Amino acid sequence: MSSQKGHVIVLTYPAQGHINPLLQFAKRLASKGLKATLATTHYTVRSIHAITVGVEPISDGYDEGGYKQAPSTEAYLESFKSVGSRTLSELISKFEDSVSPVNCVVYDSLLPWALDVARQFGIYAAVFLTNSASVCSMYWHIDHGRLALPEKQATEPVLLPGLPSLAPADLPSFLAQPSSNSAYLAVIMEKFSCLDKNDWVFCNSSAELESELVKAMSGLWPLVMVGPMVPSAYLDQQISGDIAYGANLWELSSDQCLSWLETKPPKSVIYVSFGSMADITAKQAEEIACGLIASNMHFLLVAKDSINKFPIEFINSEQERGLVVPWCNQLQVLAHQAVACFVTHCGWNSTLEALSLGVPMVAMPQWSDQPTNAKFVEELWQVGVKGKKNKDGIVTRDELEMCIKRVTAGERSEEILKNATKWRKLVIRAVSLGGSSDKNIEEFVGKLVKE
Ligand code: UDX
């Protein structure tokens, strides 16, 4: 019997925090012998550079600029569902008579309609969850009627199996303020209501990082841990493989960042980034700027399109002390010996990257799953501290300065660094050949490569 390689289409939501882990997953599958094709929107295709993975466009109905052109999040997600289903079908059909017909769709958890498309073709379907398993377990409990959405002014902690006691402020914003994120919450709940219909449910995390949760949920849900999806170069002692995900929706300033970092002493730089989606206020930007100056350390700040929110004198006068860029290769920065800590919004990818590279964090969560991730950074993994917000929801300059001191020089800084090193080792073990996440990927690949 002739052997045939499996062919997986990996479908991503067109945001940086989704493209990165899904592209990395596609690369991991390709490295294990599968044919992998990343499907993404027309306007993100050109930002992706991948040698081992095919890249094909599908449409969300807004081919020039995506969700920014849509009248609302609801309208965008609805359009993506109808136009995306049709164009994903066309893509699968395109390969039908080729030497590598598609036999599985791995789809981003924000695009649950891809399950129906895969079923229409009679091929395997797998959902890829881009949040932590702990956050996913909260949605799962709600879907299974085991947890009610918290009341508006709730103060009672939420107690769930395998999770620490969670104050309302530690919950994902989609649960803490359901009305402000109702379109996303609806999609998330749709996904959790059909979890069992998937052939696989992958999560971008490792069993070691969330061991209590994994134990508590064992046998209850079908989650398979395959992460963290961080390019292997950073998790491989040999330093081989990709040094970047291969996708940037903003213009890169990496050479400038690296040559600037090279001029700084070890552990002297604070790296500050709020990921791709969070939008900080001008007041918060001002407090960050003043806190960084007061810290007396060097800083590298990613400002994206928000550069104007930072005080102009900050941008102009701090050339020696700091560098402000629109975007960088975050992994290269975090891996640099000059970096002492990461002031982060705690997006799940940023959190995983800091854990994978052993970098202590100052957590400043903004929305979505970030409050829960921040809680885990401070209390579960103990690899950082969380900036407390004042009554206006701002982390003040004094608070930020204090947090930076605590993780870089304070009494607990050594312990935090020791923990960060410990988690880095555990993550490396999980994704290395024969590690817990690697074995799960091997099993999946084995099933798809037909005899
Ligand atoms: C969002 C959510 O916050 C996240 O928790 C969810 O799981 C996915 O969607 P985002 O806000 O963009 O993502 O944050 P994050 O998950 O941290 O992803 C940002 C990605 O952009 C990271 O992989 C990071 O390495 C990358 N990045 C960020 C850069 O490459 N350069 C930068 O300058 C900043």
From TrEMBL:
It comes from the Eukaryota. GO terms for molecular function: quercetin 3-O-glucosyltransferase activity; quercetin 7-O-glucosyltransferase activity. InterPro entries: UDP_glucos_trans (IPR002213), UDP_glycos_trans_CS (IPR035595). Its EC number is 2.4.1.-. CDD domains: GT1_Gtf-like. Keywords: Glycosyltransferase, Transferase. It is an enzyme of class 2 (transferase). Belongs to the UDP-glycosyltransferase family. PANTHER family: GLUCOSYL/GLUCURONOSYL TRANSFERASES, GLYCOSYLTRANSFERASE. This is Glycosyltransferase. It comes from Castanea mollissima.
